[in-house]
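Feature request, filed as a ticket because there's no other form

It would be nice if the structure record came with a short human-readable summary line next to the tokens. Right now we just get the raw output. Example of a typical job, pasted below so the devs can see what we mean:
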Amino acid sequence: MGEVRLEQVRKVYANGQVAVAGADFQVADGELLVLVGPSGCGKSTLLRMIAGLESITSGTLWIDGQVVNERSPKDRDIAMVFQSYALYPHMTVAENLAFGLKLRRQPASDIERRVRDVAGKLGLSEMLERRPRVLSGGQRQRVALGRAIVRDPRVFLLDEPLSNLDAKLRLSMRTEIAKLQRTLRATMIYVTHDQIEAMTLGQRIVVLDGGVIQQIDTPMRLYELPANLFVAGFFGSPAMNFLRGTLLDEGGARLVCQDRALALGDLLHANPQLAERVGKEIVIGLRPEDIRIGDARDTGGSQFAARLEYIEPVGNEAFLNLRFGPHEIVSRVPPTGLPPAGTEVRLRFLTSKLHCFHPELGHRLGPTA
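Raw output as currently delivered:
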């Protein structure tokens, strides 16, 4: 078992800074949960409280049905993998892997068996007699992971373990961690600031900003039904486009942005909650992949004209950087048959792909996760 539950867990420092404000969620046995957010959002502090490396100001932390607020880290049966590999340079790979087991006075035969088993799973069998200085960054990170795995803890805590690796190596290590978690059926709580890493690894994701949980959901529901403007803008590359203007009902919904108007079709009928915003400001969100190049023959969806300022070709697709009144817009399109920069481009979108948000409070207006 490796179930973790937090009930209104808070961390307030002596100077009054609230690092974590009322974290309240549960990690199921065998689940890989990701904590994600920008630097300083409280995700690492939250992980350190679970590990016992930071004290909990208030609230309750449960591991396998037992309150562990006052337990020392060694008595929580957790293993932590840090951003730095923290390997002992004078020890071989085998000695690094075995170190924690020796401290717990495990039988030598058990230590040897578990070290060789874990080394085989991580592709380290040929490196057991080498020292860390001759290993690559990816190999060192695998040793750090192996040192945690060999203990067979109830919960694995990983604090940005891939941030020191280059982009190609991060991709392969992400895959290895995902495979490993499925093989071990282990409970893992993984901290990252990288939204792609969070989306590809997490079975569920906890999104934090300023110490406050913004949303907890599966990766695709976070992407398709963001709870607020922060979550909507954090996930996606390029980021979601936001258009701020006044919502009008003139035989159909329209968004007026200074001297430009955007027809929104049957949006008011599809989203009755927006009726109270008619005549008031609103923020409309539209993902780059949901904006396509259109022409006068297109009959589906809504259309508008924007000035194409710059084209970014990235291989199998292109990003069009456009201007619509006061707003900069990015469209993700196939890389062929593109109009030249500097021209007016007709674009189209489906109103069913729109995301609507309150302009001051930031929360989603309409269907929620």
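Something like this underneath would help us a lot:
The chain is about 25% helix and 35% strand.
Residues 255 and 262 are 5 Å apart (CA to CA).
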